[in-house]
Structures are given as C-alpha cells and as structure tokens.
Protein: Probable S-adenosylmethionine-dependent methyltransferase At5g38100 isoform X1
Organism: Lingula anatina
Amino acid sequence: MSKNLVPGTPGTGSPGLTDAASASDLNDQLCQPRNPIYKLPDKYTGTHFWSANASNHEVLYNFLLPSILEAIGDGSVENTEDPFVVCDYGAGDGGTSMKLMAEIIKGIRKKHGEEKPIVIVYEDQPWNDFKSLFCLSQGLFGDQTSFLPEDENVFVLASGTNFFTRCLPRNYVDLAVSCCAMHWLSKRPCSLAQDIFCRGDLNSEEELEAYKKQAAQDWETILLNRTAELKPGAHFFLVTSASKDGMHSGATRHYTFRITTYLKDLWLTFAKTGRITMEEFVNTNVAYFQRTEDELKAPFLSADSKVSASGFKLMSLEINETIFDISMQLKNKKLLDEEQRVIAHYARKYVNALRGWINAVFMSGLDGRRSKEEKMAIVDNLFSQLEDDVACRPNDFGYDMIVAYIDILKEK
C-alpha cells in the first residue's frame, strides 16, 4: 500500500479449511461451466444493483451517442419491412444503457417513422440479472423510467448466452453496442503468482504471454461472431477497458490509491494473516485483459485477416483516460453529521460498483472445501474493509478508467 494507508487486518478466529462443506455447495461447483462465472451475490439479484451503482458505465455508453445517431441517420443498412434490431452485448441489468436506448429509439423513429418495429436484444451470460433487466425495461422500479410504455412498437428480448459464441441469427442486427464487456476473457489462461490482475508489473513473462495470447484469440472470436450477426452496413460501437502508456483502468496516476493494487494488497494481507491461504491468493485471478491500441487493431491489419475477410472494417479507435470524480473534495475540517452521512453513502456506492463485477472473482478463488457461507463471510469482510478505508479518505479513491472507443462497420 502507498501513502501510509495499509489495508485493515482482517478478523481472525474464523474456521479454516474443512471437509464439512455441504454437498450442495460441492454440487454447485461441479455444475459450473469451465468459463469464468461473474454473477452478483444472490441477495442483489432483482434489485438493479449493478445499474444503481455503476453510473460511470452509463456515462461511457452516452459518449457513443453522437456517433450512433449519425450512423442511424446515414441509413447505411438497407431499409426493409423487417424490424430494426439493436443488440447490447454484455448488457448486465440493462440500466446503464437505458438512456442510450431511449435516444436510439428516437433516432430510429426520426429516420424510419413511427410504425417501424424495433427489437432490442440484451445479451449476457445465463446467470446474468435478467430479472432486473426486464423490470427496468417495464418501468417497474420506482426510481427508474422506461422507454417501453411510450412506444408500443418496441420489443425487448434477451439472449442468455455469451459473446464468445454466436448469439443471434446471421445478418440479423442493424446496430450493435457494448460497454466495458469485451475485455473479459473466455477462460483464465493461468494462475498469477503475485497479483490478481494481469497488468505486467508483477507478472512473469510466461503469465503475461499466456494472457496476451488468450486475449488475442478471444478478440478475434468476438469479432468473427459479431460480423456474422450484423447486417451489411451495420455498425458495432463499443467501449472497452484498454491500456495506454502502461496505464490501466483502476491503476492510473489520478488518485492516491490505485484500486487494483489496493485490492491485491488487501487480499494478500488476508493470506499473510491466515484468513485465507496463499494457494487461494494465487488462485484468485481476474480473467480479463486490457488490450493496447495495437492489440485491438491487430485482427484488422494482418495480411491473412479473417476479420477483414468477413467484412468487418475498423472505422475509428481512440483510447482515452476517463475520470469520474464523484468524491466529495472535502476540505480539512470537522465534519458535520450530514457530511459524514454523505461520505458513508459515497463509500458504499463506490464499493458496490466494484463489487458488482469482482465479487465472484474473490469467491471463485477460495477453496472448494469452504462452505458457501464461509466464503461469503470472507469476501464481505474484504469489502467492508475497503468501504471503511474509502470513508476515511474519500478523495483518494475514485473511478479512473482507460477506455477505447471503437466504431466497426460491416461492409456491404
């Protein structure tokens, strides 16, 4: 840890590894597919937990809007009597793209009229929080609005697959979008001995090469599946976590604490104090890779490019550092009760935004002989310590992201 803040020592006295894990827990593990599983804790399912906390992702989606509306207005996809199909890949509970979808619908109506049927497909893994997605789309949460009641010719569907496979019929999609999903890998290529993220500074050459190879294979697979699904003339607009000048999301120079390093250090503290084992630390790895500009462009540039041969053309790619500074920017003064409540709310929201995607990573790293309840207690303790630290120093934590904005066209 840097700047004198050390992750709090986790509580001791919890039982260690035992063989008393319930049969149902073991069966849960045996039934899991080999691909990494990233799912919310069950208690958050159906509460739109993800979109209620990941406001930064909503902003990233909205950055795409001008380019998307321009593409819709150009009418590059041939207008037929078929519905206009929009697909959001890796959509989560759909809440972070809700405002974007409302504007997309307006753009389609302006171009194609009020009677044009519109189909919106939300794609994500089978264990995604689709309950929240459909409640959000129907406007059933009191704190959210929906685009559906305003337009009877809009139809919402879900594809519970994963974007490493074909999700939709060939030549089906008129417009594709995605936000912060395509950096995930189809599998964890190896364990990381000294880190939970593959970033390069603490990884061996063998570890880094394994992740790079897997990321290259998966990126090509993703693109080939999408070019099959898109209609000629359709665009695929996406935002994905990336790497630039040695910086990664959660590890820029903007904040005192780089959250990816913080989480690694805190988890390592758990191992050193006996709360988890070193083997569990080594087995806790995030199966994602933040590609560089060259790595993102590579499938389009090689002499024998399958992606280019399939009709996909890279129209634009720009990588930027994006900061979401929602901390309080407090002055050094005695806090009033209301200010303390605001800070506590900020700390909880900040931790929840992280927990929405990384909770399952820590759960999966723990030994299968632990019960589900014990695993949850350990991970709850981890995030509780993070929340306390953020509340103590709210200005030193934040959302710092390196993101690539990409526009890909399927040529006619």
Summary: The chain has one domain: 23-410.
